[in-house]
Design goal:
single chain; alpha+beta; Beta-lactamase; 9-stranded antiparallel sheet; 8-stranded antiparallel barrel; 9 helices; 21 strands; 22% helix
Length: 498
């Protein structure tokens, strides 16, 4: 944890405590993860309001649809095991004897479409009621599609219930057992349960408001039954810190790094171009930075986990009120800490070498197809594509290495298809003059003379400017006749009109 984060955490604690009291939320639990571990974890308010039972980092909360991230992770584990492919159809694994779908074509959707909410299936199972919670113990015989698959994005709990069936069929054990054995155990999430019973004494009491603005009342306790792969996990804020740290890491025995990055990568982009869905994850752009995570609600509870991959900074929030608004706490924490972490991570610009000017000039590829410029730009030795209308749109800074005349090409501030991260080595003649550079075996650029001739045009010397003052000729004042009514002039004479 950086000193900047440590200095900001008391403000986060004070703001959170104030907000919980001001908004009368029963309790909020929050963790901040930076790098590979949680750096701050706190709980505020009451796990059971009537008894004034304080919430702690070990209090168990339902996390609602954050459960879907565990289901997606289980699918990717089975893919790494070679037991399924993401483009397999559901009926490649789930037989019609397990689910008597009214239309067998409904099982032709792919696993990838279910993960990304692009299957077109209805949102909830028949018989699922969120206002008076009741959930079927088994997958029902009938469900339907609203859109053809891969034509519209439509959030679907039904899709994740089907993924639970796929996990059981392909993995050979029920969804909950797979999650506990392959995810919760290895990640040390000892206090998290995939399918907690409704009367679990460790669960915080969930609260709802019958009418907006009225006092909270306890929400009915439920078993999620067949809907469990979409919504049933319960966890503590301590365990969610461990889970968030796993997602911000580089992969390992639970899931390889390549699959983990694929999980977080946009797979379906929404029309606003600010929000997308990965494999079980929401991916969105906030304040110019990519955030990855998932929200969750279930009767009496609301949760959110979200992290910024580029900064390895994340926040998880659990509340025991279905209008607890965990996003407000997550947003405040990330808005507070993001500038601090970004400043600490900013790559310091290397000092410009004293001999940088020797490398500047025009270079032409040996095949004659490309020209590049080496110049000092903004205090750094820079490789610039001359055809770009904006010099910053296609440039790379050259970062010196300990090897003689060798640099690493670093990305500029804008998108370009240049060789970021690769080595560039200048070659010199026996006299020490720079003659070209190589960027890869067989790719050589040769230094060329200046491609243009600068001609300075000088004007002929001119004598000093002499100001000529032109004077106006004096004008005689006009004296006219004043005509008065009655025909007389100003001398009193009368004009006779004939």
């Amino acid at each position: 944890m950086t000193s900047g984060i440590a200095q900001a955490l008391p403000l986060l604690e004070a703001w959170t405590a104030h907000s919980v009291m001001q908004q009368h939320v029963p309790s909020v639990a929050l963790t901040v993860v930076h790098g590979d571990r949680p750096v701050w974890t706190k709980a505020f308010g009451y796990a059971e309001a009537s008894m004034k039972t304080a919430a702690t980092p070990q209090t168990l909360y339902r996390i609602g649809s954050v459960t879907k991230t565990f289901t997606a992770l289980a699918i990717l584990q089975l893919r790494e095991d070679g037991k399924l492919r993401l483009d397999d159809r559901v009926r490649d694994h789930v037989t019609t004897t397990a689910i008597q779908a009214r239309n067998i074509g409904l099982l032709d959707v792919t696993i990838r479409e279910l993960l990304t909410h692009s299957s077109g299936l209805q949102r909830d199972l028949p018989g699922t009621w969120w206002t008076q919670p009741s959930f079927p113990a088994e997958f029902p015989d009938h469900f339907s599609a609203i859109y053809p698959s891969s034509t519209e994005w439509k959030y679907s709990n039904v899709g994740y219930v089907l993924l639970g069936e796929v996990i059981a069929a392909a993995g050979g054990e029920p969804w909950a057992r797979h999650v506990e054995r392959r995810i919760l155990g290895p990640l040390g999430m000892a206090n998290t349960e995939a399918m907690p019973p409704r009367d679990d004494a460790r669960l915080a009491t969930g609260y709802s408001r019958p009418t907006p603005g009225e006092p909270y009342v306890p929400a009915p306790r439920v078993d999620h039954g067949a809907v469990s792969p979409a919504v049933s996990v319960a966890s503590t804020i301590e365990d969610m810190g461990r889970y968030l740290a796993f997602h911000m890491g580089n992969g390992g025995s639970v899931l390889g790094g390549k699959s983990l990055r694929e999980m977080h990568r946009p797979q379906w982009l929404l029309d606003d171009w600010q929000t997308a869905w990965g494999l079980g994850m929401r991916v969105r752009r906030v304040d110019g930075r990519v955030r990855v995570g998932h929200p969750g609600t279930t009767p009496g509870f609301a949760a959110l986990m979200e992290f910024i991959p580029a900064l390895k900074l994340g926040v998880a929030v659990l509340t025991n009120a279905d209008d607890g608004n965990p996003a407000s706490y997550c947003d405040y924490a990330l808005q507070l800490l993001t500038p601090i972490v970004a400043k600490a991570m900013a790559r310091a610009a290397p000092d410009l070498a004293e001999d940088a000017e020797r490398y500047c000039g025009h270079y032409r590829s040996e095949d004659g197809n490309r020209t590049m410029l080496v110049a000092v730009l903004n205090g750094q030795l820079t490789l610039v594509a001359p055809g770009a209308p904006n010099p910053y749109a296609a440039c790379m800074t050259l970062e010196r290495t300990p090897e003689s005349h060798t640099f690493i090409m670093r990305s500029g501030s804008a998108f370009a298809t240049l060789a970021f991260g690769e080595r560039l080595t200048f070659s010199t003649s026996a006299s020490g003059e720079v003659t070209g550079y190589d960027v890869a075996p067989g790719v050589r650029f040769v230094r060329k003379p200046t491609l243009y001739l600068s001609v300075e045009r000088r004007q002929r010397p001119q004598g000093p400017y002499i100001r000529v003052e032109r004077r106006k000729q004096p004008q005689v004042r006009y004296i006219g006749d004043e005509r008065r009514a009655g025909g007389g002039d100003r001398r009193g004479h009368q004009h006779v009109m004939h």
